[in-house]
């Protein structure tokens, strides 16, 4: 049995296979995920686990060179937006429309579905490199 790090075998596997510029998406429980996209469903109940909790864990184990969010989060979910931007000041952040974010799902290596139940609580994480 694995002793440390991420114990979820699906998340650990996806992270170990990422190359530079590959993406994964952390999603709220309402984001539509195409059937052909790998979905790692962590949702237990509304709000659990939160997107922020899972993001903090993933950031410890993944080199993230950029975070992309839907621009709608800036005015429809200001509390979460403030948390995300305050916690990750050193990571480039950009914004796309929610429609464009949903279109990016098909190119993601995986979507990690959380129990987050607040508007526009989805982030695209772009893999960086360790050198």
Automatic annotation (TrEMBL):
It catalyses: beta-D-ribopyranose = beta-D-ribofuranose. Substrate binds at residues 28, 98, 120-122. SUPFAM superfamilies: RbsD-like. The active site is at 20 (proton donor). Transmembrane segments: none annotated. GO terms for cellular component: cytosol. Gene3D superfamilies: RbsD-like domain. Pathway: Carbohydrate metabolism; D-ribose degradation; D-ribose 5-phosphate from beta-D-ribopyranose: step 1/2. It holds the Pfam family RbsD_FucU. Keywords: Carbohydrate metabolism, Cytoplasm, Isomerase. It is found in: Cytoplasm. GO terms for molecular function: D-ribose pyranase activity; intramolecular lyase activity; monosaccharide binding. The keyword Kinase does not apply. NCBIfam families: PRK11797.1. Catalyzes the interconversion of beta-pyran and beta-furan forms of D-ribose. Homodecamer. Belongs to the RbsD / FucU family. RbsD subfamily. This is D-ribose pyranase.
């Amino acid at each position: 049995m694995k002793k440390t790090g991420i114990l979820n075998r699906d998340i650990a596997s996806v992270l170990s296979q990422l190359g530079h510029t590959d993406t994964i998406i952390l999603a709220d429980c309402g984001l539509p995920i195409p059937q052909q996209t790998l979905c790692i469903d962590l949702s237990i109940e509304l709000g659990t686990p939160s997107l922020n909790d899972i993001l903090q864990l993933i950031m410890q184990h993944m080199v993230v060179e950029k975070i992309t969010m839907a621009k709608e989060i800036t005015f429809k979910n200001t509390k979460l937006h403030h948390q995300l931007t305050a916690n990750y000041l050193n990571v480039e952040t950009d914004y796309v429309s929610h429609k464009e974010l949903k279109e990016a799902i098909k190119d993601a290596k995986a979507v990690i579905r959380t129990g987050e139940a607040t508007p526009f609580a989805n982030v695209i994480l772009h893999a960086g490199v360790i050198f």
